[in-house]
Specification:
The chain is 43% helix and 9% strand. It is built from 29 helices and twelve strands. Bound molecules: zinc ion. Zinc ion (ZN) binds next to loops.
Length: 755
Amino acid sequence: MVLRKTKLKSKIPDKRTVTTGESHSQPQPQCRPSDEFVMPLRPSPVPRFRKCPRIWAAILLGLLSGSAGLAQSDAAHPINSTPVVLITVDTLRWDRLGCYGAHSVRTPAMDTLAAQGARFENALAQVPITFPSHTVILSGTYPMYNGARHYTSPHLLPSVGLLPEAFQRHGYDTAAFVSSFVLNSSWGLNRGFQVYDDHFGLQQNVTRNPEEVERRADETVGHLLAWFQARAQRDLAPRPFFVWLHLYDPHSPYDPPEPFHGQYAGRLYDGEVAYADSQLARLFDYLRQSGLYDRTLIVLLADHGESLGEHGEDEHGFFIYNSTLHVPLIFKLPRGEGAPRVVRRLVGTIDVAPTILELLHLRDPLSQQFQGNSLASDMLGKGATSARPGYSETYYPRDSFGWSELRCLTTDRFKYIQAPHPEVYDLTKDPQELRNLYGERTTLAAAVREQLMGIERRYSSTQTAAVGPPLPPETIEKLRSLGYLAYLAPVQPASAGPLPDPKDRLKVYKAIQRARLLNSVGRSEEAKALLETLASEEPHFYLIPFLQAESFAQAHRWDDAERSYLACLKLNPAFEQAIMGLAYLYLRDEADAAKAKPWLDLAVHRNPHNITAYYNLGVIARWEKNNQEAYRYFLKAVEENPGYANSQQELGITLVDLKRYKESLGPLSRAESLGQEDPRLDHYFGTALANVGRFKDAVDHYQKALKLKPDFAEARLSLALTYLNLGDRPDATREFRTLCRQNGSLCEQYRQQFE
Ligand SMILES: [Zn+2]
């Protein structure tokens, strides 16, 4: 079931006591406003991608800096001229493509690609989760080597090489166009791409509006086509390119645009697949028209499938059955090389990177890292390499819920799942994995288990085993807006005994998912009832009091919310989301600021990268009229992430209040260029400019503040006074008269100066 989320409106802070020159208005805490408790941060208007000129600047800059790779191409590394387009369609089940036998979904673009190239019948994803799976695809390594195992995995280590870096070394232009925040550059997959068109950067304020953390295929494909056109116009066309296009449409919520919505009513997942295909047709048409199609290597695959209710799982990531591991994989070779063919042997998404480099005859140091095998000989009719069993895993149940991880090994016939209750399936007789043969095939199970352990030992890296700092809360919130239950379970000591099997926890998992969805759409009463039943069954599970706290807060039952957050922290003292939840509760009221402070201190102590905590500590310091301390906290927030507009704004405003006008101009203008639209920002900006003698610029900013909020009396007064400074008495008088109609007391206070 898909519950739609509502679009949230931006709010303008209501406390303003600003007068010209000396301004004292207060920042708003980044917490959940009482009427929209599900939203932790006050959103500022976030420009939609299509209206955002910054990305074009980024694209052009990327193009201009694209010559860097050429310097490394020498005789030993000749420039290969074959362009490459790598397409990953998120959450795409193999059995929804016509070329894989689907009859009721129209996928002509992907089918044509398959008919012209090699289609792999048995391709498995190594992880059924977006970021780790793409890390496997782009690095050619297993998660135990590259360290990307979950949504909350640390930023990718520089020691893990990526495919675009290899292409850059060989003189290629490299560009990526991704459609979801879960692949934005903050995770580290942008390395090696001269252009990384993501738009879901952390400079945007936190929002739970999914439209602002993902985008549809037409938009992403549109950006890619614009990139191609810009290349053609700039005569860069002769340079080879490596392009990665990521489409997110089949990911939940399933909501394709018309006519697909109508055509696929009642099975909207299929509609999303058909819609994504129609956008790929747009791309392929462009490549044909521009003469690129024939000579380009096009690779298409999914990062994972979607369970759609199989094994009791609705989406993906929780289990490792083939409904989420089995993916489509298609290679369309350049210049008609290799006859069209179907390859039946078992392969993995880990084989994609080695295959691409071999097909292009690119010799690159990256290949030393590869843990997959090239599939080139399968496609070129040179005989297949020997089949290897496929390793897959999910650490999601463990990291988020404290239940066991799942790992499996698939051979050409059997599949063994390592779990507290292990599973064995005979895939030839039981492809749906419905009959667990573990009890009957103990010898086989022991042998495959040994093999699985061997693979883990062989491919693990000690370097990436270390756990990085927790994710910033704003990132967690964005993941949650996409429907991910990204939590952090307490680490269980070995003495606590074996972890529960996710199979035995499915009911709890689904109930938690449902409660979270109900909370996110404001149906907190239903969520509360569900959680109450769950709490009596699972009294020691930390997530239940956490979700209860969120329900209570949504119903404005603050005392109950406080009690539930504290109960959650008793079960999982390091749970940052509960620590911050509690702080947000107290931040509702300036009088409770002293209560919020120790929790925010604890949050930054546990995670020194928690910019939201620094920001809110700055807000409290402002409330306490301690601008020196506020300055230190806002500065820390800005140092942690200069792309966060609210921190830049408050740093600038605090500097104005400290009369450090010249210094304030930098952060104020950065806040503005980050897209911040707040009359308070413009008023302070005007004040800073007036105080450094730039009266005309000050007028512009005061006028902008008044455009955003016409009854902003203090800004009106500042404007009138600035006109006086410029010797423009008629304009000064006009503005002052407007002020007098709006605010009698301010008018009386300054009347003398205007008479
Ligand atoms: Zn995905």
